[in-house]
Write a structure and sequence with these properties.
alpha+beta, two-stranded antiparallel sheet, two-stranded antiparallel ribbon
Length: 149
Amino acid sequence: MESLSRATRDKIASAAHYRCEYCKTAQEISGAQMHIEHIIPLSRGGRSDERNLCLACAWCNSYKWVQTHGFDRATHAEVPLFHPRTQQWHEHFRWSDNGVYIIGLTVIGRATVETLKMNNEFIVPARRHWVEAGWHPSQIQVSEDARDR
């Protein structure tokens, strides 16, 4: 596997505001190092260029693995997963009223939430604490979501 330069890693992380581009978890509160993830895996023909790289938390990266598609239970369809470089987060997802759960708004959003287990049994309790502490959702995320609407 090819190695990415420190400059490329830093550029991807900075552009993502040091937050997972799938679940929006902030690096500073996650307790785990973020990963540079290949949106289309190398094994599926993806490349190591910035258009195919994103910042992902350990949870999202481990559940995504080499997958590019997921299953939407509502439509019983296999659909592409969310692509952080070509799609807007707020068009496919929203936060529950209490800020703890990610809700898929589209077939892509629902399939991504399910496939990446974005509301898994470990992250949801952590998000509750982050919300109580006023750390989540981040001010950057709130302003980006408002700007994108």
